[in-house]
Amino acid sequence: MASTYKPEQARVPPAVQLPVPPVTKFKIALCQLSATDDKERNIVHARRAIEEAAEKGAQLVLLPEIWNSPYSNDCLPVYAEDIDAGGDASPSTAMLSEAARSLQITIVGGSIPERSGDRLYNTCCVFGKDGKLKAKHRKIHLFDIDIPGKITFVESKTLSAGDNHTIVDTDVGRIGIGICHDIQFQELAMVYAARGAHLLCYPGAFEMTTGPLYWELVQRSRAADNQLYVATCSPARDAGAGYIAWGHSTLVGPFGEVLATTEHEETIIIAEIDYSQIELRRTNLPLQNQRRGDLYQLVDLQRLNS
Ligand SMILES: NC(=O)CCC(=O)C(=O)O
Fold first, then answer.
1. pTM value?
2. How does pLDDT run across 111-126, given as a tens digit for each residue?
3. CATH number for the domain formed by residue range(s) 24-286+299-303
4. Domain boundaries, the chain
């Protein structure tokens, strides 16, 4: 018997329409940077890379996860900054704000360790062209892993988890933010898609076991499942570090296609985003209308409670 299901019968609110972005085509820069134990050097180094990216035409710059500090449970408390206090209490975000304003670009500022009261978070700040802080995302899913003989890392020893998802309207479209391990949770990406995101940005430091296994796979999955753009930015690899990053920062399009990527050395990837490709993909294959809300549903608790 033919199905009688109609999408409008689903009990959850329908996905919002994709908002019209302020620009359709623009350049994004993925700054795959090295992070040393010298915080001042890391800040100056990131500032230079952002400037170079802007000179090459990037309107959006994405930095890596934990770019101002070595990524270790010993270092995170020492390098942490009080972002809400700002100024001298947060030289890293002061630099990002100044760079965004003077270069007239949007910056998704990777992540830095944040101190807030007696807690520490892994936090990404987004700055607009006016230098104002537009959003702050605290990593929701902390990276606790134990594969004996390969990788043992317990981020939750030091950090607390954030409790909110973060979606932000910018001069380069509506952006959903996640940090590294957040990318493994498809529900977060689905919530962002349901809220009209054009692009998901994930600063991320996958490592030498998980990187080759599924770093590219999860990026392509989040993009293809949700028919939107996904951008990731890793630290460059330092083979002598305690935590060795995989690298391979990447831009994926709404067909799940890799548009730009790299190996593990320091580099700045410049690539073009064209949001008209999202509409095209969704017209070609209208997954949103084909979804069976009578059989399964995504419940966005944050939205329902607001
Ligand atoms: N820094 C991280 O969150 C790493 C995440 C990772 O490697 C994963 O498999 O997830």
1. 0.96
2. 999 999 999 999 999 9
3. 3.60.110.10
4. 24-286+299-303
Give distance in angstroms: CA of 154 to centre of ligand 1.
11
Residue of minimum CA distance from atom 5 in ligand 1: 181
State in Å: Cα 193 to ligand 1 middle: 22
Catalytic annotation, pick one of 180, 207, 216, 233: 180
pLDDT digits (tens, 9 = 90+) for 273-306: 999 999 999 999 999 889 998 899 888 888 777 7
Residues 6+ apart with CB under 8 A from 141: 161, 181, 182, 184, 185
Distance 235 CA to ligand 1 centre (A): 13
ipTM over 0.90: yes
Answer yes or no: 272 catalytic.
no
